[in-house]
Write a structure and sequence with these properties.
Length: about 675
C-alpha cells in the first residue's frame, strides 16, 4: 500500500512537472519573436532602441511576399513609396521626400552602402534578405550620407559555415514568370565563405495599347558575396550586385475612365536601366575599439523614350529622349566602443563621396500642327555634367545611469560641393552654356534621453537637426541662378514609448513628432516641355503620430497593426501663393492590419489590409490621389524544405495613381499595380 501511495505521489509530481513544462513551452510558443537590429551600428533588441524604428525579419519578409523595394512601405507607418517605371520612383518618410532625386531625404542602404544608382534609378529587387530596418527622423549622426527624413536599411543574408541553397518559381496573371535561386556555404571552414543569389522576372505590361503587340517588362539581378575571416578579430566581406531592367513601353497614361487601355500614338516608348554596386567591408575588433572600413563604387545607367501626348490623333507631336550615366566612389571609416555592457557607448566616423553624373535630355517637337503634322522634329537638347564632392564627420556618445536613464548626444558636420557644366541648344543654336560651382557647410546636432521604467516599458524624447544638400538641376535652367537650389534644413522633435505585455505576447509602441522645415525643396514640372526644375519654397511644418503593435493571442496566430497620421502645411512660399497647402508626396495617413495563422500541420493563411490617405503631387495641390484601400491574401502549405502558396494582391482591383500632373494639356498619371494573383513554390536544400 505504501508503495502504491509513493508511486501515486511520484505520478502526481511527474504530471505537475509535465504540465508546468508544457505551460512554459506554450508561453514560449506564443511570445512575439525578438528582432535584433543594427540601426545604431551595434546589435540591439529593437525594443531597446530609443527612436522610431520598424523592422521586418526574414520570416516576415517571406510571409508578406516582399519582392521589391516598393513593397516595403505598406508595412511601415508614415513611409510612402511612389513607383515610377521598373527602377524609378519617389520615397517619403514623414513628409520629407526623395522628390529631388539629386538630394535625398531618405537614405537607402544595402549592407552599409548607400544604394543611390543615379538620380533616376534605385535598386528594386529584393531576395535572400535577412532583415529590413526603417528608421524615421534625422539619422545623420550614424550614417555616411545625411538623411533628414529617415533611413531604409536592407541587410542581406551572408554566407557562413552552414551550406544553404534554395530555388523558387512563380507564375501569375499578366503572364508573370519569376525564378530566383541562391546557394552559399563554406569554401574553407571557419575561414572562407561564398554565396550566390539571383533573380529573373518577366511579365506583360499592365497597360494595353490598341493595335500594338503586348508590351513586356523584364528584370534580371544577381549578387555575389565572399566573406573571409583571416583572424578571429577580422571579418572581410566583398559584395557585387547587378540589376538590369528593360521595358518596351512608357509609364504615363491619360487619367480617364479606363486608363489601362491607351491609344496608339505611333511612338515606340522604352525604359532601360542598369545599376551595380561593388563594395568591400572590413570589420576588425581590438581591445579598445571596433573598426569598420567600407569602400564602394555605385553606378547607374538609364535610357528612355517617352511622352505620348494623347492629343494629336495618330501622330505624336512631342516626346522626350533621356540618357543618364552616373558613377560614385565612396569611402567610410567608423570607430565604435567594444564593450556593449559598459555604461558608456560611443561611435565616430567619417565619410567621403566623389560622384559624376552625365544627363542628356532631348525634347522633340513636331514642326507642324495638330491638324497638319510634318513628322519633322525640332530638337531642344540639354546636356549636363554634375560633379559631387561630399565630406562628413559624424558621431554620438551616450551614458547610462543606474541601468535606467540614458543620455545620448550626437553631432554631424557636412561639406557638400556641387559643380555643373551645362549646355542648352535648340536645333544647334546655343541658348545657354555655362559652368558653376557652389559649396555648402552644415552642422547637425542630436540629443536623445530615454528612461527604462522596467524591463517592459521604455520612454524617450529626442531633438535632432536634419540637413538636405542643395544642388543644380540636371536638365533645366539657362542660368546658374535658375538651375541652383539651396539646402533644406529641418528640426525634428519626438517623444515615444515602447512596451511589451503579457510575457511578451504583445508589443505596442507609440510616438509623436513635430518637424519644422526651412527652405523646403520642391520640384516643378514645366507643363509644355515636361522638364523638371528644383526650387526652395520657404517653410513647412510636419507633425503626426505613429502606432505599431504585434499580438500573439495563441500559438500559430499573429496579428500586426500599424497606423501613421501625418499633417503637413506649407507655411510660406517665396515664389507662389501656396501658403496653407499640403506638402506633396505625403499621404495624410497610412494604416495596416495583418492577420496570419500557421497551423501545426503546415497549412497557413494570411490576410492584409492597407489604407492610404490622400496624397498631392505638387505644391499647388491641383492633382491628387484620393484615399484608397488595398487588400492582399495568401494561403499555403510549408514544411522544413518545401513551401507552396497561392496569393492575390490588390484583391478588389483598386485603380490608383503614383503620380499625376498635366502634360501638353492632358491630365496624365502613373498607375499603381492592379489586381495580381499567382502561385509560388520554393525548395530548400
Amino acid at each position: 500500500m505504501q508503495i502504491i501511495k509513493s508511486r501515486g505521489r511520484l505520478f502526481i509530481v511527474l504530471a505537475l512537472v509535465w504540465l508546468i513544462s508544457a505551460q512554459v513551452q506554450a508561453q514560449d510558443a506564443v511570445q512575439v519573436d525578438t528582432i535584433t537590429i543594427t540601426a545604431n551600428k551595434m546589435e540591439e533588441n529593437i525594443q531597446d532602441v530609443a527612436g522610431s524604428v520598424s523592422a521586418l525579419s526574414e520570416m516576415q519578409i517571406e510571409d508578406a511576399g516582399i519582392n521589391s523595394f516598393n513593397d516595403i512601405h505598406i508595412h511601415i507607418p508614415n513611409f510612402s513609396s511612389y513607383a515610377s517605371g521598373n527602377m524609378g520612383g519617389y520615397d517619403s518618410i514623414r513628409g520629407q521626400t526623395n522628390l529631388i532625386t539629386s538630394s535625398r531625404a531618405v537614405g537607402i542602404y544595402v549592407d552599409d552602402v548607400p544604394a543611390i544608382l543615379s538620380s533616376w534609378t534605385k535598386l528594386t529587387n529584393l531576395y535572400e534578405t535577412e532583415r529590413i530596418e526603417v528608421l524615421r527622423g534625422p539619422q545623420g549622426n550614424l550614417y555616411g550620407l545625411n538623411s533628414a527624413g529617415g533611413v531604409v536599411n536592407i541587410i542581406t543574408k551572408k554566407p557562413g559555415n552552414t551550406f544553404r541553397a534554395n530555388a523558387t518559381a512563380e507564375y501569375g496573371n499578366y503572364d508573370l514568370r519569376s525564378y530566383k535561386a541562391s546557394v552559399s556555404g563554406p569554401v574553407v571552414k571557419d575561414k572562407l565563405f561564398m554565396g550566390f543569389a539571383g533573380k529573373y522576372k518577366t511579365r506583360d505590361s499592365y497597360i494595353e495599347e490598341e493595335g500594338a503587340d503586348t508590351h513586356k517588362d523584364n528584370w534580371i539581378s544577381g549578387r555575389f558575396q565572399m566573406r573571409w575571416v583571416p583572424l578571429d578579430e577580422t571579418n572581410i566581406l566583398f559584395t557585387s550586385i547587378d540589376e538590369d531592367s528593360d521595358s518596351d513601353h512608357g509609364v504615363w497614361v491619360p487619367k480617364d475612365s479606363d486608363p489601362f487601355k491607351i491609344k496608339n500614338m505611333g511612338l515606340d516608348e522604352k525604359g532601360d536601366t542598369y545599376g551595380n554596386i561593388r563594395s568591400l567591408r572590413i570589420k576588425h575588433h581590438t581591445p579598445w575599439f571596433d573598426l569598420t572600413l567600407i569602400t564602394a563604387k555605385v553606378s547607374g545607367e538609364s535610357q528612355s523614350i517617352g511622352g505620348k501626348d494623347f492629343v494629336s490623333g495618330g501622330a505624336n507631336l512631342k516626346y522626350a529622349v533621356n540618357d543618364q550615366d552616373s558613377n560614385k566612389w565612396m569611402q567610410e571609416l567608423r570607430l565604435a566602443s567594444t564593450d556593449k555592457e559598459n555604461a558608456f557607448q560611443w561611435i565616430f566616423g567619417g565619410f567621403y563621396l566623389k560622384g559624376e553624373e552625365d544627363t542628356d535630355y532631348n525634347f522633340r517637337k513636331d514642326t507642324g500642327t495638330m491638324d497638319a503634322p510634318t513628322g519633322i522634329y525640332a530638337d531642344d537638347i540639354t546636356e549636363s555634367e554634375i560633379e559631387t564632392d561630399i565630406f562628413s564627420l559624424f558621431g554620438q556618445a551616450g551614458y547610462t545611469f543606474q541601468e535606467r536613464l540614458t543620455i545620448t548626444a550626437g553631432l554631424r558636420y557636412d561639406r557638400d560641393k556641387k559643380e555643373t557644366d551645362f549646355l542648352h541648344n535648340v536645333n544647334g543654336t546655343v541658348i545657354a552654356d555655362y559652368e558653376a560651382s557652389t559649396t555648402w557647410d552644415a552642422v547637425s546636432p542630436k540629443l536623445v534621453v530615454d528612461f527604462r521604467a522596467n524591463d517592459s516599458i521604455m520612454t524617450y524624447v529626442s531633438v535632432a537637426k536634419g540637413y538636405k544638400s542643395g544642388g543644380y538641376s540636371s536638365h533645366m535652367g539657362d542660368t546658374p541662378e535658375d538651375a541652383m537650389f539651396d539646402p533644406e534644413y529641418a528640426w525634428s522633435y519626438e517623444t515615444g514609448v515602447k512596451t511589451n505585455w503579457l510575457n511578451n505576447r504583445i508589443i505596442a509602441n507609440m510616438c509623436g513628432f513635430y518637424t519644422t522645415v526651412d527652405d523646403i525643396q520642391i520640384m516643378y514640372t514645366d507643363p509644355d516641355t515636361w522638364q523638371m526644375s528644383y526650387k526652395n519654397a520657404a517653410e513647412a511644418t510636419l507633425w503626426g503620430i505613429e502606432l505599431e503593435t504585434i499580438f500573439r493571442p495563441f500559438a500559430g496566430l499573429q496579428v500586426m497593426a500599424s497606423f501613421g497620421l501625418l499633417e503637413t502645411e506649407l507655411e510660406k512660399h517665396e515664389i507662389r501663393e501656396y501658403e496653407g497647402n499640403r506638402v506633396p508626396f505625403a499621404s495624410d495617413y497610412n494604416a495596416g492590419l495583418v492577420i496570419q495563422y500557421n497551423s501545426p500541420w503546415g497549412i497557413y493563411i494570411r490576410g492584409e489590409g492597407s489604407w492610404f490617405g490622400k496624397s498631392y503631387f505638387g505644391e499647388d495641390n491641383k492633382y491628387s490621389q484620393e484615399a484608397y484601400m488595398i487588400a492582399n491574401s495568401k494561403i499555403g502549405y510549408e514544411t522544413e524544405n518545401f513551401n507552396i502558396n497561392f496569393y492575390i494582391k490588390n484583391a478588389f482591383d483598386k485603380t490608383y495613381y503614383n503620380f499625376v500632373n498635366c502634360r501638353g494639356g492632358v491630365e496624365k498619371g502613373i498607375l499603381g499595380t492592379p489586381l495580381t494573383c499567382g502561385v509560388q513554390a520554393t525548395l530548400r536544400f
